[in-house]
Specification:
Layout: H1 6-18, H2 21-28, H3 32-46, E1 51-52, E2 61-62, H4 64-91, E3 96-101, H5 103-108, H6 110-120, E4 125-130, E5 144-147, E6 155-170, E7 179-180, E8 188-191, H7 196-207, E9 213-217, H8 221-230, E10 235-238, E11 253-259, E12 263-271, H9 278-297
Parallel strand pairs: 3-4, 3-5, 7-11, 8-9
Antiparallel strand pairs: 1-2, 5-12, 6-10, 6-11, 6-12
Helix pairs in contact: 1-2, 1-3, 1-4, 2-3, 6-9
């Protein structure tokens, strides 16, 4: 049976439907001798005749063995057509893509990636998941992984953007313009809980001579801004956390660049050596374009 080919089964089906080798040959664009050779190869593979040939203009008759072969052969042909269609759709970008992400990307870059992929390839299957351990991310079976830092291991990446951190303070707490990081030493500050990223930020500030006095920790970005408005302290937040925020026009707040400026680099990573699907390649292009648009706004 290993010698049975789809073209043999396709020829057999055409003969069964047309009734003669000649008409089947015309339908398939073969010569009649080519049709006869294919049926002979099929009969050799299955070990018996699949057609009785009465000769002359009379139609051929399918044998009992031929009925078995034709029934399963048509199923194989249907599956082969489905496979060909699936391959065509995959090449056109209508496959599945699994993307790992984190909160800021989910807010600002990923929506554009998802929207454009769905617009361009309505049949695609997009699966998203947030990184569970940001300090030790693993790509695993993911096609793409957004992360704010390099990932060790057999991974390729593209650098998306460097995100600076900004100082948000009360309206008159600091003079206009950039603020030296060292001025934040022992200054009251509202901060995020000690997550992986927040610990990194506090280490970065300390490396430049500033160990702020944390007076309140909260995971709520709006709560942080509310506490700064209330005057309990300032806050150091990533630029994209303020993107599109009313904080820029809030009379009770002032926003300053820091000197030197802590910054994190966003990367888009994928497994090295793995052939990318057209969908993954397109997602990378869109992510880079979207990141460049954000950089222009910084």
């Amino acid at each position: 049976m290993a010698d049975v080919e789809l073209r043999h089964l396709r020829t057999m089906a055409a003969i069964a439907e047309e009734g003669t080798f000649g008409r089947a040959a015309g339908r398939l664009g073969y010569t009649q001798s080519s049709v006869s050779q294919q049926i002979a190869a099929l009969e050799k593979a299955v070990g018996g005749a699949v057609f009785d040939r009465p000769g002359g203009p009379r139609p051929v008759r399918i044998t009992p063995l031929g009925e078995v072969v034709l029934a399963h052969g048509r199923d194989l042909l249907t599956r082969a057509e489905a496979l060909a269609d699936a391959v065509d759709r995959f090449r056109a970008g209508n496959g599945r893509i699994d993307i790992g992400t984190f909160q800021a990307v989910s807010k600002l870059i990923l929506p554009t990636v998802v929207r454009r992929l769905l617009d361009e390839h309505p049949g695609c299957d997009i699966r998203l998941s947030e990184v569970g351990r940001p300090e030790d991310p693993e790509i695993g079976d993911l096609d793409l992984l957004f992360h704010y830092g390099r990932i060790e291991g057999d991974v390729e990446h593209v650098e998306l953007l460097d995100e600076p951190y900004l100082l948000v303070a009360g309206a008159s707490a600091f003079p206009d313009g950039p603020v030296q990081v060292k001025l934040l030493d022992d200054a009251p500050m509202v901060a995020w809980p000690p997550t992986y990223h927040q610990r990194w930020l506090e280490r970065a500030l300390a490396s430049h001579g500033a160990r702020p006095r944390i007076v309140f920790r909260t995971a709520g970005h709006e709560t942080i801004l509310s506490m700064v408005r209330a005057g309990i302290g300032s806050a150091v937040v990533p630029w994209l956390a303020l993107h599109g925020s009313d904080a820029w026009s809030d009379d009770m707040l002032s926003i300053h660049q820091l000197r030197p400026s802590p910054a994190t680099t966003w990367y888009l990573c994928w497994p090295a050596g793995r052939t990318q699907s057209p969908l993954a390649a397109r997602a990378i292009d869109i992510a880079v374009e979207t990141a460049n648009e954000l950089i222009d706004q910084m």
